[in-house]
Design goal:
CATH architecture of the largest domain: 3-Layer(aba) Sandwich
Largest sheet: 7 strands, mixed
Radius of gyration: 27 Å
Number of strands: 22
Structural class: alpha/beta
CATH topology of the largest domain: Rossmann fold
Strand content: 15-25%
CATH superfamily of the largest domain: Thiamin diphosphate (ThDP)-binding fold, Pyr/PP domains
Number of helices: 22
CATH class of the largest domain: Alpha Beta
Shape: globular
Strand order of the largest sheet: 3-2-4-5-7-6-12
Amino acid sequence: MSRVLGSPGEEKLLLGNEAVARGALEAGVCVATAYPGTPSTEIIEALAAVAKRTGIYVEWSVNEKVALEIAIGASMSGLRALCCMKHVGLNVASDPFMSLGYTGVKGGLVIVSADDPNAHSSQNEQDNRIYGMHSYIPVIEPTNPNEAKELTRKAFDISERYETAVLLRLTTRVSHTRGKVTFRELRKPMHKGKFNRDLSRWVLLPINARKLHSDALNRINQIAKDAEELGLVELFPGNDEVGIVTGGIAYLYVSEALNRIKPEKRPTLLKLSLTYPLPEKVVEQLFTMVKRIIVVEELEPFIEMQLRSLAYEKGFKGTIEGKKYIPRILELDAHKVLKGLSKALSLDISEKRHVDLKLKLPQRPPTLCPGCGHRSTYYAVKMVSKKLKLNAVYPNDIGCYTLGFFPPFNTADLSYSMGSGLGIGMGIAKSTDQVVISFIGDSTFFHAGIPALINAVYNKYRMIVIIMDNSLTAMTGHQPHPGTGFNAVKDKAPVIRIEDIAKASGVEFVKVVDAYSVKEIMKVVEDAVSYIKERSKPAVIIARRPCALWEYREKLIRGEEIVPYQIDKERCTNCGICVDYFACPAIVRKDDEVMIIESLCVGCGVCAEICPVKAIVKVKNND
């Protein structure tokens, strides 16, 4: 049975993301949508695993904008809907998100933004609480998995009561922390709603938008007044001179620090689960209790700025500080908060740190997996670039293939956002005489690459687009996409062929190659270079092979034998091509000899193709 299912009163150890999924089930969610993105992915995975048993609809959408619009449509029809994404996904969904703040909702609608302080798996550290303020949508932040579950459930009630969407802001440490979660009873989901026309609300013509702007302000102001009643704030009285305001994961670090201060010296602590809008009544109460306020929060001074504004409005004469002591970049931890509060409070707070054992751990540099078709594609492209002396520019994108950035391939001259490898590549192609070879993955192509490819055709860009098709959204854990053949709940789905989309977009040069065939790729890349120089039009190459990890697992399930390769030491000249230029993790040097780690080898055979002396052969079966 899935971890997110269980009886009321049962306790389970869940990830924060799994806890959100459980909270949505307890709230009676009917529709759940998302596009995969770390650290948010496990929410939809947990819901998809129980979708058929619970009767809810779950899908991996083509991108976050579409996912949010589906959830909005469900909400307009009176159903409760959940839409999940990583923080940069909200950039993609921001167009409907901003309009959503004006129209409000009918059925409860909760949008999860899993932010990534420290950029563990992202291109930036953006703080999406600011989106809430920008759109008049309340922001709720849990501190641990059980709170993630409880606040998700509560967010749906708040959403329907005030007819507003709610932004549930997680961070990596909340999403991927395991904690004890106590289950409540599941609310039975509705299966069908009804869309009732409300033209003055749902149709955002200027005449309607002007009134709806006022409605949005009224909703958010009312939530600020009702925050205590809603159970979204806790005040712990302490020292009458100093107060600390915090929320989210930072609350845990503050609590740990305060436990090391004598009770009679502990500051007053205000814990906010609602970080936008600020709870007016309790903040005004805090202003009467203390002379100085210290704000502890990750990333931007979001709470701090709101406090300063309210302090000015209410005539608070004390000081408000935060980022003077607490870092504005990277994620917080107990040490950073302890250090900041020690300085802010002028206290020598003892700190118990782990003993540094000075262990010499083996290095684990980022690398493409053994058997990954991206490796052979990059190898072939670099061989052609060297042969033709191209001085090529390699715009890259977001996915496993971003690892082409690292030596020996060095095939990521830039990587900005989903689909940007094509768009920025066009700008470079128009601005220089260099050959532009843009790389994009299959899932990213469906997500954001199609409009860019159409633009390349329409405006006649001289560039090569290589679509790295491994048949899955592999980087986030093998989620399906429109080209996979099945959906989020493992039902069979139509396969949307990338080559058909490219041809329908007007691309004349469209070639599909086996990502394991270096010779074939080299031939097609050379042809593509000649084509774009002669025709001044885009060329598309689709390098196709299933994800090696997925294929390896499927072979094991089917009971197929996986025959690894080995080095014929008598033939090997130790030229280093397989180790230094192909860089498969299964091929290593030991005692000045090249060897293949058979337990890592997936038997793809590409190394045997590129070996100039044919010194790489299949392991012989001795049976």
